[in-house]
Amino acid sequence: MMSRSATAPIKRRSTALWTRVARHWQLYLLLAPALIYLVLFKYWPMYGVQIAFRNYNPIDGFLGSEWVGLEHISRFLHSFQFSRIFFNTIAINVLGLVFGFPVPIILALLINQLASRRLKSFIQTVLFSPAFISTVVVVGMLFVLLSPRSGLVNNVITLTGGQPINFMNEEGWFRPIYVMSDIWQNAGFSMIIYLAALAAIDPSLHEAARVDGANRWQRLWHIDLPGIRPIISIMLILAVGNLLNLGFEKALLMQTDLNLGASQIIQTYVYDVGLKSAQFSYSAAISLFNSVLNMILLLVFNQVAKRAGQSSLF
């Protein structure tokens, strides 16, 4: 049993906690909806993750279904589709990271150099507006613009003497189209984060650099870029942590029978085996495997950034 001297500090801390809650109850009341949302939609569903280790049967329920351990994950790793699905997911995400990650940084640095506030606001609005377009509309636009018969792109190709290309049905075009359209849709949204970081840089640094004779390129390289380096580091860690997470809706909408070899990714495969084939335990095991890999990547890259002296999440 714990002595009175050992339990006294615990009681004091508990009393102090409830005193703070009672004193600032309005703040905790505002926080309550977010906490309830997290508990109901993020933590409570974790109870169902156990079906990844069972042969789930709706009649027997979660606890009554047979426990099979890592059998479903092993089945996925040894399936003939694993290498293709895993490669497709990695390839699209790596291409998006290599070509898409620098774009919002470059846009933010260039826009920050504009002297006219009206022009700056107009360009920000133009670049930010695609983020408000739904994924369904974006994919619909792609099918219209890239149609082999009536699409604008193929009309231009035909007028220049080329042959129409069936972009949306060719495996080789799936990844470039996915990555380029994703950059167009989301680069403006990420750009706002870097613009906010640039706005926090002390203007006196630029004034001192002007006095010393530094031009715009030198000020951008030696003041602006180092000023947003912590944000770049954190955003890169988050991007690497989501390396195996791909936009399910967009990949599914762009997917056709002819481009399935390049468009079948982990998320769409989980949809096929889970909802279409009703293999709930198998699909849950694949999703869990994907989430664990993402968490490992996040932890490893966060540690790498910390060892390199860069900003990290924790």
Largest sheet: 2 strands, antiparallel
Low-confidence stretches: none
Structural class of the secondary structure composition?
Answer: mainly alpha
Strand content: under 5%
Helix count equals 17
Shape descriptor? flat
Strand order of the largest sheet: 1-2
Q: List SSEs in N-to-C order.
A: HHEHEHHHHHHHHHHHHHH
**Alpha-carbon distance between the two ends:** 36 Å
Could you tell me the radius of gyration in angstroms?
26 Å
- Number of E-state strands: 2
Helical amount: over 70%
> What number is the mean pLDDT?
87
Provide structural commentary.
It is a single chain. This protein has 314 residues and is mainly alpha-helical. It is built from 17 helices and 2 strands. It has helices at residues 4-23, 25-43, 61-64, 71-77, 82-100, 102-112, 117-128, 135-145, 152-159, 171-199, 203-211, 216-227, 229-241, 248-254, 260-263, 266-276, 280-307; strands spanning 54-55, 66-67. The chain has a two-stranded antiparallel ribbon with strand order 1-2. Helix 5 packs across helix 10 and helix 13 runs antiparallel to helix 17 (280-307). The longest helix is centred in the middle third of the chain and has 29 residues, at 171-199. It starts with a helix and ends in a 7-residue tail after the last helix. The relative contact order is 0.11.
